[in-house]
Each structure stands twice: as C-alpha cells, then as structure tokens.
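notes to self, project folder thing:

trying the whole complex as one job this time. last attempt i did each chain seperately and stitching them together was a nightmare. two parts in total, labels are on each line so i dont mix them up again. if this works i'll redo the older ones the same way
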Amino acid sequence: MLKTSRAQKFIKSKVFILLILLVLEVVVFTILSQGLYVSIINIRNILNSIVITAFLTVGAVLLMVRGYVDISASAVGCFTTMMVATLLAAGMPWPIAILFCLIASGVVGFVNAVLITECGFQPFIVTMAMAQVLKGLQYIIFGTNRIDIKDPTMVALGTQRIGGLVPYTLVLALICIIVYGFILSKTYFGKSIYMIGGNPQAAKLAGFNPKKMAYILFINDSILAGLAGCLLAFRMKAGALDSITNGQFTGMTGAILGGVSFGGGTGGMFGAFIGMLVISGFKTGLTLLAVPPWWMTFGSGALLLFALAFDRFASFRRTKS
Amino acid sequence: MAQETEVKTSVMNNGSQGLTLEVDNISKSFPGVKALQNVSFKATSGKVLALLGENGAGKSTLLKVLSGDIRPDEGEVRINGVPQKFDAPVQAIQAGVSVIYQERQLVPSMSVIENIYCGDLPSTKAGILRKREMKQTAEKIISDFGLDIDPYEKLGRLSTAHQQMVEIMKAYRRDSKIIAFDEPTASLTDTEVTILFDLIKRLKEEGKIILYVSHRLAEIFQITDEIVVLKDGRMVKQLNTAETNEAELIKAMVGRDIGDTYSALKRNDKIGDVLLEVKNLTTDAIHDVSFTLHRGEIVGFAGLVGAGRTEVVRAIFGADPIKSGEVILDGETVHFKQPKDAIEAGIALCPEDRKEQGLIRFRSVQDNVCLPVFQKMKKGLILDRKKQEALTEKAIEKYSIRTPSLEKLVVELSGGNQQKVILGRWTSELLTTKLLILDEPTKGIDVGTKAEIYQILCDLAREGKGVIFISSELPEVINIADTIIVMHNGHVTGTLARADATEEKVMSLAMLD
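result (full assembly):
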C-alpha cells in the first residue's frame, strides 16, 4: 500500500506555508529594525502578547474543528477579570475566587450548549447574544470602576518571571497549548471531535454522541476564557473594563491562518499556534517600527486575507501539477 | 402595461430540428487516472442517447466536459458542426447545453418561479425584476409540462420528483437544445418515473438531443434509442437500443460475460436459530411492524420509496424513538436509546444516504474504516496508529477496495468503493457484529460492484450473521433475500419466501390500498 511520508505530507500542508510566512516576517522585520526584532526582549514581547490569546485560541480551535463558533469567549474573559478582582478585594482566598470564576464561566458555556443543542439555535447567534448579556451584567454587577488586586501570590503569578526571564503566565499558556494539542491530535477524544465535526450524522450512527460533545466543548471554551480573564487581571494587578475585547477574534484569526476551517473537521493546534505567532509577530514588528496602532488592526485583517489568498493559490498550483 | 410584458423566451421552440452533437476524440486525464481516452460519438436530435458504463467508466467526466465544468485535454465538442470551447458552465448553457445532475442545482428556499429563472433573472434597466414576465412564462411551462405545481410554492416543499421537474423546466426555459440527465431516476418512485419518461419523450419529439446516464438497464431499454457504452474511459461501442439485449450490454460494460449474477452466488444453506424478533414496533412513521430474523438469514425489505423501511431499521438501531412494541435480540428485550447502544449489542447499520449519513467525506479511508472502533484502539492515552493502519489494510484487502493509499480522502473514491469502506467498517474483527442492516447498499453502484456486494451479503450470512437488506430494486431483493417483507405506508403488507416471490406479487403488495 502506497504511503505518503510524513515529510511529504507536511510540505503539502498549510502549516508549512505558514512557517514560510513566519520566517519571511522575521527576516523582513529584522532587516527593517536593524536587528532589534530578534533581541531577547522583543521575542519575549511577542510571546507575552500571545498569553491571553492562547487560552481563547485553544478553546476556539476545539470548537471550530467541531464546526462551532463561540463569540462570547472574550465577554466571559472580561467578566471574570472583574469578578476575580471583586472577589479578591472582598477578602476571598485566591483558590476559591478562581474556582468561583471558573464555575461561573462553565455555567455560561452550559447555557450556550443548551440553547444550541436542545433548542437548535445557531451557535453564532446564541453566543453573540450571550456576549451582550455578559457585557451588560458585568457593568450591572461590578460597576465601572477599576478594582485593584493586592493578593501577593496572584500578583506574583501575573507579573513575575521564572529566572527573571520567562513569565509564569507564558509557561501556563504554553502548557495549555501543548496539553490541548496532544489531546486533539493523539487521543480518542480528539479524534471524536474531528469525526463529529466532519459529519455529525454519520458519527452518531457510528456510535459517537455529538450532543455530549457540544456540551463538553462549549463549557471547555468558556472555562478557558474565564481562566484567561483571571490571568489578565493578575497581570494588570486589577480588574478593568473591556480588557480583552475581540480577543477571540484574534484567536480565531490565528486558528484560521493555521488551517482550521469554519466548516469543521480540519486543522490542528500546532498550525493555530504558528498562526498566533505570525499575527503577534506582525503586530510587535509594527510597534517596534513605531507604526501607529490602527495599522496593526488593519494589518492583521489584511494578513488573514493574504494568507487565505496565498493558500488558495498554493493549493491551486498543487492540483494543477 | 400588459402588452409590454411580452413573453421573451419562446417556450415551444421548434428551431432545434436537425441538430447534431459530435463528441470527437475527447481525452481527459487527472493525476493518476485517464478518465477519458479518445471518446467519440455522435448524437442527433429527436433521439435519446444512453451513456452506459460502470462507475469510473467516465460518464460523469464526459458530462462535465459537456457542461463546461472541465476542459478536455484533447479533442473537441461540436454542435451542428461548430466547434465549442467551454471555459465555464455559463458558456455551455449559452450554447444550449443543460446537464441535470443527481444533486439538484436548485435553491430550496426560493419559489418555483425563481428557480426556473435561476441564473438568468430578467430585470429592467434599473435592475428591478420583471416579476410578471417570470410568472407568465413559469405558468406556461408548468402547464406545458402538464403538472400540478404552484409556481409560488417554495421549492423545498415540493416532492423529490417535482423538484426534478423544476430542474428540467429550468433547462427548458433556457431553450436548451441538448439536455443531459445524470441518473435521473435514482430517487424517484415508479409513478414519478412515468412522469419523467413522458416528459423526456415530449422533449425528444420537440427535436432536442437527450443524453441519458443510468445504471438501470430496464430503463435504458424503455426510454433510449441509442446506447454508447463506456468502459475505463474508453468508448466500447455505440449501438441501437432496438438491436441489442441486456446480456450484450452487460458484457460490453464489464468486459466479460457475467452470466446470471444471482445463480453464481455462493449462498448460505444453514439457517440458524432466532436472532432478532420485532413485535408490533410503532414509531411516528411505522405501525405494528413484526418480523423474525434467524442467524444466517437475509431478510429483504421491499416497498416503494417512503413505505417506512428505513424507519423500521432506524428504530431498531436506536436512531429514532420507539412509541411502542418490542425488539428482542438473542432472546433479550433491548431498548437502544442511541446508535451506540445498538452497536455495542452487535448491530451495524449501513445507512441509505452514503454521503450524508454514512461517510465522513473529507476524512481519510482509514478514519472512515476505523470510525466505530476508535475507542478500542486506545494505547494508554493515545490512539494506536499501527492498529488503525492494520485494520484498514485488512478491510481494503478483504473487499478489494480500490484506493491508492490509506490517507486518500474517502470522497475521492467511487461509489462502490465508498460502500465497501462502510462494509469494512462494520465487519472488522474488533466488532462482534451479529446483525448487519444494509439500507439500499447498491444505490448508484455499477453492475460489477453490485455483484460483489451481493456476494458479501451471502458471505455474511454464511458466517452466521443476520442480514437485513433494504432495496428498491425488485430483482435484487427477491433474488438475494431468503425472506422478503413488503411494506406500504408504514405497515407490513406481506411476507414471502424467496421461492414464492415474484416481481408481480411484491409489487401488488407494495402498492396495496
């Protein structure tokens, strides 16, 4: 039986194209910034900027492989940023405060899943509505003032670096990507997501449970977003408004760059990670060159469109040959 | 105002008399496959020309060349002697060619009128739709066709047959001179087929060129005038329908004399004890269905489309809720809440709609074979890759599935090979399948592979498994199954042994009032 070698398969994958893009990006910015781009400080900046997005991306990748989407993730993150700060300010011990935040996040995911699986509503609409509900609730419950965090352990977690070099939050983010990447690509659970995402009806008739999977993935996505919110609060040493607005869009952009499709059933965590690096490397590069911030927003959108076009061109060439 | 909305498209156009379509030396290759090799034939107006061949013979590719979907590597298509170069489907349409595919190219959420005009909506200079013109033409076409269809009805609410008629109306409205049908009867009931055939006859009388692709030999004799037989991308011969017979056609298609498929089967002669007993099964769609299946027995379900056969097996499999009644498997009353429970109890279902319910289309052959047994391939935390490969290779060998690799996307295989992938999925050694349910397993599959699938069914019976075989093709049900259960309107209307079953008997039970 004919087998394509792993190397051949990799060269044909979207991830490979993305890696080329990343290398190009590094080369161009390094030249433009006269070497500053590859300094340790800048690389740390790039990695640092993906910490919060990483959690949102990981959840989004799992959902998107299943063929779902969750617009409410950054609203959940904003909500827990304020919630954890409020609970800590009220004197609650940090493990319990975080636990409450994660439970609250999980409840949001559960409600999303109920509305989508039991009532048959569109995920996009349900989670868009949920995002607005949460935004409103956040103002109603926590008000609009900045709430400082003084808990020394959590402030340390948010701001300190291992050996003065690698931030704890970055380590957590990388662990999260590796663990979920492993689950997605190597385990039975991960395979189930691909199979159900590829064709829910066929998967169900072959013994899978698409409904249960929807609950797991939506709850998981919300909890990861809630965790991202808490970590962000610790990093800022405060709960502040609109802290991660549109974070999930950045995450989804990275995922799509890395080959995850909206249709479900394709893509992987490694690609999404590279996708995130490409985006944040791009933004950091522009900052380094003192380009005004609105160019970054413009740029990350344009980058996605460019990558889509490039990939279409490349796969067109492949089928031609 | 009324005069202004002159009906532009002349509906009853007789200007297509004396037309010819020449396919000259067409070749087309895809990576690794020569889909068409020097295919040439000529079709003339007022005749129905059949394109006959097994799956993979090149019929679909040929249709795609004619519809402008793909460009041939060599050769040309001439209409009335004029060479045509189609770069896109729209050019083929403008040249008067319409292809009516199995998958309808219609918009379910739009009205019949809008669908008839789809792709070519008439509008004023300001871009406003000429609704009155559309309505008048649509009504005229519908009445010309002699059908009772409300032009304002949403297309999705029409029956399958009527939807197909709308597709034909679309071609008719464009005044297409050449209309190609790709397996048009695949999902139609007998009455609906009659309507379709009447229509094809009328189009033919109007001087159109009709190309007709089908696997069903009986239809070919009923409706066509000439036959072009394709095999492995080459044209075998072109013959007049009146001067040939079934045996000659099969021989030309398969390249060998298959004789009587049914008598060549190695059947099971040892029927065992009772495996499945269904008592008064009732759901939303079926009423009081009872039957018994023994080990080593093939029970066939016959009936018209919509008789409730699929619903019976879905209920047994736990895919649809049961209202009342009992399912007894191996002497034990079972209640499957979901397919998973049924699979664990040893039941497997190859669903009716391969594409929508059977396959994960954009995943590999390997994923599709291993689908129900991934759970049994855990090695610690991870899934054992080697086990998956070994299992898939076994299935490929067992059923001689034609695929270049394990990683090939299943959507890229032919229909027959896709069906074998699904069969391989349920017969691996990791499952203890006692009862296999096959819902229309030979739908859209070529003659050669059909014979292979019949033998697989018999082999399963010989291994002592129970088999439920649903089919809308009467000859195959009454020749393969040991017992034939006939359904009509959600009820069982009769049970026959193979020795007593004739097409007439089954038909009269299936159409009982």
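what i see at first glance: Chain B touches chain A at residues 317, 319, 338-340, 343-344, 349, 351, 356-363, 367, 371-372, 374-375, 377-378, 381-383, 393, 396, 404-407, 425 (CB under 8 Å).
need to look closer tmrw
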